[in-house]
Recover the amino acids of this structure.
């Protein structure tokens, strides 16, 4: 027998945020594909962190964090140093699993997704240091 959790306002808000995040990731992936990138993975998880999108084009390998907010400025400000470290750690896990990618030009990018208009791609938004 499965016991369902009660629908509390906090639970409903978390579910809505989760769905909005998935939608933003889909929009960001479509945006990157339209610009010639191949999506290698979405929601890549490792024990040390997660990367929303791993993409490639030519020699480039992107580890992309997707952020959605009502205002793009708010989205850009929400990529914290702690989150950057977790993304870098997850990228290192990716490279350990895909050693052939270690020779590529690696970039840590952010794609900002607002309510309206196209996503905004910030190439090399942060580095691994």
């Amino acid at each position: 027998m499965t016991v369902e959790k009660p629908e509390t306002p906090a639970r409903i808000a978390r579910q809505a945020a989760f769905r909005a995040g998935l939608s933003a990731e889909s929009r960001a992936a479509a945006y990157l594909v339209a610009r010639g990138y191949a999506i290698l993975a979405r929601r890549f998880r490792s024990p040390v962190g997660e990367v929303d999108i791993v993409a490639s084009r030519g020699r480039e390998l992107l580890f992309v964090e997707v952020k959605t907010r009502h205002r793009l400025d708010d989205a850009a400000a929400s990529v914290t140093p702690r989150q950057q470290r977790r993304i870098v750690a997850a990228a290192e896990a990716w490279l350990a699993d895909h050693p052939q990618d270690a020779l590529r030009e690696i970039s840590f990018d952010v794609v900002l997704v607002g309510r309206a208009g196209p996503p905004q791609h910030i190439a090399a938004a942060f580095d691994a240091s």
Helices lie at 9-34, 72-77, 81-97. The chain has three helices and five strands.
